[in-house]
Design goal:
This protein is mostly beta strands. It has two helices and 19 strands. The protein has a single domain, classed as Trypsin-like serine proteases (Thrombin, subunit H), CATH 2.40.10.10. Helices cover 5% and strands 32% of the residues. Strands 2-14-13-17-18-19-16-15 form an eight-stranded antiparallel β-sheet, with no helix packed on it. It has a six-stranded antiparallel beta barrel with strand order 3-4-5-12-11-10. It is globular.
């Protein structure tokens, strides 16, 4: 069965007239009162991220949208292809990787329009670099191909570098942690980067549910988490947020489509793109840091 679920798009923001530190009052999400207690915030049912996850960064795109990414070298960020290229609004992919509907990819966004921010809280985010080059596999549809890298115009120092799982050993039932800057379950942008740990991988493609480059999680992420990592127990990035939801997408209540036991969220597996990984690191003049999976 294909997954007829809504895309986890970049989250549109009206940031052109406000600072990044004030973004909670400057977004296009429904008007709701954000919780005053930081512990009430959640990716979807999660909690605050930690400094150990500071390799996870916020990407602001042309002052209008937000994605999540991961710093994997001093001048290289891993994210989703749909964060860096113009793409169709809807996507339905067959388990074979064939596009049933939508997912067409257009021109890349100007690399310099992608700005990288580091930090734990929205009020203290720091702009550290801009894109200098976008690297992807050149596919014309996102199905089975939603992974990309951004080579930066300068090195980002003082921030951890995430390792990648580049061996194809991810398994169903493995526990991972989702990290990102996306909407909370209340439909609000968070005031801090968030995480949800203890997530069991429900499926690893190729299978009846997911394509050969994908893995599937349940409830965890929402709009704005696109491009964010699934972290293994050893901290290695094994997947990147692509698309998902519960089939109940509502443009006036975007978090509604992200919650509940029916939510299925598709990640692109890093290990399924070895040529792309090595090409991107070559452009960045770096070597990927690799971690082997922990024993079951």
């Amino acid at each position: 069965m294909p997954l007829p679920i809504a895309p986890l798009r970049t989250l549109a923001l009206a940031l052109t007239t406000c600072s990044i530190g004030a973004w909670l009052g400057c977004h296009d999400a429904p008007e709701r009162v954000a919780p005053t207690d930081p512990d009430e915030l959640a990716v979807i049912g999660g909690k605050h991220s930690t400094a150990a996850q500071n390799a996870v960064v916020l990407l602001r795109i042309a002052d209008q949208a937000v994605c999540t990414g991961t710093l994997v070298a001093r001048d290289l960020v891993l994210t989703a292809r749909h964060c860096v290229s113009e793409t169709d609004e809807g996507i339905v992919c067959a388990p074979s990787g064939r596009a049933i509907r939508g997912g067409e990819v257009g021109p890349d966004r100007p690399a310099a329009d992608i700005e990288v921010f580091t930090g734990l809280r929205a009020s203290s985010l720091r702009a550290r670099a801009r894109g200098a080059r976008i690297v992807h596999d050149g596919a014309t549809n996102l199905c089975n191909h939603d992974l990309a890298f951004v080579v930066l115009d300068r090195a980002v120092t003082g921030t951890p570098i995430a390792a990648l799982r580049i061996t194809d050993s991810t398994r169903t039932g493995e526990l991972v942690t989702a990290v990102g800057w996306g909407l909370t379950e209340d439909g609000e942008l968070p005031n801090a980067r968030l995480q949800r740990s203890g997530l069991s991988i429900l499926d690893v493609g190729p299978s009846r549910e997911s394509a050969s480059t994908e893995l599937v999680l349940g409830e965890a992420i929402c709009s704005g988490d696109s491009g964010g990592p699934a972290l293994a127990a050893d901290g290695a990035v094994i997947g990147v947020v692509s698309y998902g939801g519960n089939g109940d997408y509502d443009p006036y209540d975007p978090a509604r489509g992200c919650t509940g036991p029916d939510a299925r969220n598709v990640y692109s597996r890093v290990a399924a793109f070895p040529r792309l990984v090595h090409t991107a690191f070559a452009f960045a003049g770096a070597t990927p840091s690799s971690l082997s999976p922990l024993s079951p």
